């Protein structure tokens, strides 16, 4: 894992993306540095998220987050290859794999940077829901860092936005599903036993749908409360779901 | 000290072959990338050969391209069939390519007749080449989505969820294939008189509706995941 390539990955995503796209001789070094960055950065982030409960969950988190990232990339790369070709960018599979690895490597480095801060706020006694929100925000910021590599990698030419949107859609769907089946990541400290994987419960899209419904129920309850302050005990008690994340 | 030395090494002295080309405000030279015009420096890719334009019309090349597209579509069928396994793998592998095959075999000849009737500048080989390109695009997208689809259909608890995922992949691939076909054929009408071009536009729009309906009907009635049967 070359420090120079890692520095370039952070400082100069455009040149990295161009090297991947044009199948430059650097691609090998970029890919290996990116895999190293994914292994290190995602494992550190996963371990910190697991430290919310502590114990074996630190190890589980450190294994599962890199696993989720790499599994997502392996499932997305063929789709990216096909979509890029269909939108007028018939690059080699090698270029596509290098580009996706570089994007994931950059996001993993950002996760690595967030890990100490996240650990600190966990250690200061952050609540479960806030911890989930902050972890998600860190993950989102890392995703933006990856997106900048991907979008620059698409280069100029027609269909750039459509290709980027298609990449995003596929990545979000596959990444969400992969992460969903590898749950739990963030576990409450009082949970006695933690499985490596939870039993299968619907899918990522089901969860998004249920959450949207649940948000609607909260909204309805709040609206009802604002009109009838006495009827607070009404239906729709929000469900507290343990170990959701 | 060591940390400072490492930082200096990172910041100041990258090896010459990996020297970061800093982002500059100067815009990169515009690079128009089309299947027919390879990006500079890029190696020839398999997808370029599959989706690019033929240098010389060749029936064999078009048929090969179509066959490759149909085979890749079958991969998607295998991925969808992985939910139930067993015979479903085979049934889906056969069922998925049937729709692009039906569109190419039934719809395209009809479109050719209609276009020729109004003196559109088109010949059978160009029509076949466009159909091959559309089929290859659909197949390529389906083949690319196959690994992700295997994940979705095998990890969704409800059959409805799995069917929705499978359907979304088919819709996306169908749209892209249709787009490739229409663009390949539409490019032929650029220099045609206004009246002919307008008519060709209507004919292609009608074909798009017909092809969508036919593909949807085929997939719905023959794919077991949608409740159909071969």
Care to describe what's here?
The complex is a heterodimer of chains A (245) and B (230). Chain A has helices at residues 3-11, 13-21, 27-50, 56-86, 93-123, 128-153, 160-181, 204-227. By secondary structure, chain A is mostly helical. The two termini of chain A are 31 Å apart. Chain B has one domain (58-226). Chain B is mainly α and 230 residues long. Chains A and B meet through helix 1, helix 2, helix 4, helix 5 and helix 7 of A and helix 1, helix 2, helix 5 and helix 6 of B.
Summarize the entry for a quick read.
The complex is a heterodimer of chains A (245) and B (230). Chain A has 245 residues and is mostly helical.
List the helices and strands and how they pair.
The complex is a heterodimer of chains A (245) and B (230).
Chain A: H1 3-11, H2 13-21, H3 27-50, H4 56-86, H5 93-123, H6 128-153, H7 160-181, H8 204-227
Helix pairs in contact in A: 1-3, 2-5, 2-6, 3-4, 3-5, 4-5, 4-7, 5-6
Chain B: H1 2-12, H2 46-51, H3 59-81, H4 87-117, H5 124-155, H6 159-186, H7 194-222
